[in-house]
Write a structure and sequence with these properties.
Length: 190
């Protein structure tokens, strides 16, 4: 069975590929000749994941799934949330996004936050959503060089290091995306 992961990100693709049973041939947007940047215009993670999966279903007619992730900060009423990638502007700079978040949290008593990933799976007859979350706190400064995005300022509960300081395999195991992917895989293997 050929299954499209609606992403141009080869790292994400490889990560999921290693976890899937061999009868599933996982391919990316590049593999199916889709160079389009699929618009993410919904106001929720669920909506954006579904938009991306539906784009592939409509234009290519192949079984597929898409993901969308956000960082939800309690003291900011869930911001940056669905706007995490472009929190500090369309330049989508991780450094600018983290600086803005650290500024916004100055003087706030609580620094709790969570990462949430939603995956939308479109099979021939069905459409299903899976989600994964990890809770933690926003640190006062950036620490570590691994990972990407907000990893240097997110410290998962139960650890005294940020995601950017922890090994990648641990992040994949306890993290938001890994948990959502595990649910997707369990469903595909059923
Ligand atoms: P996407 O939906 O996977 O493209 O994620 C949207 C944005 O959320 C990214 O541009 C990052 O800023 C942030 N993000 C997503 N996943 C992670 C992560 O695992 N660590 C840190 N930041 C992330």
């Amino acid at each position: 069975m050929k299954l499209v992961f609606a992403t141009h990100n080869q790292n994400k693709l490889n990560e999921v590929k290693t976890l899937l049973p061999s009868y599933i041939e996982l391919v990316s947007l590049i593999d199916i000749g889709c160079g389009d940047e699929i618009p993410e215009t919904a106001e929720t993670l669920e909506g954006n994941a579904q938009l991306k999966a539906d784009f592939v279903t409509e234009h290519y007619g192949l079984p597929c799934f898409a993901d969308d992730t956000g960082l939800l900060v309690d003291a900011l009423h869930g911001a940056p949330g669905v706007y995490s990638a472009r929190y500090a502007g369309e330049q989508r700079s991780a450094a600018d996004n983290m600086n803005k978040l650290l500024d916004e949290l100055q003087g706030k008593r609580t620094r709790s936050a969570c990462f949430k990933t939603v995956i939308a799976l479109n099979l021939v007859q069905e459409s299903i959503l899976f989600s994964g979350m990890v809770e933690g706190n926003i640190t006062y400064e950036k620490k570590g060089a691994k990972g990407f995005g907000y990893d240097p300022i997110f410290q998962p509960n139960g650890y005294d290091k940020t995601f950017a300081e922890l090994p990648l395999d641990l992040k994949n195991k306890i993290g938001h995306r890994g948990k959502a992917v595990q649910k997707l895989i369990a469903y595909l293997k059923r």
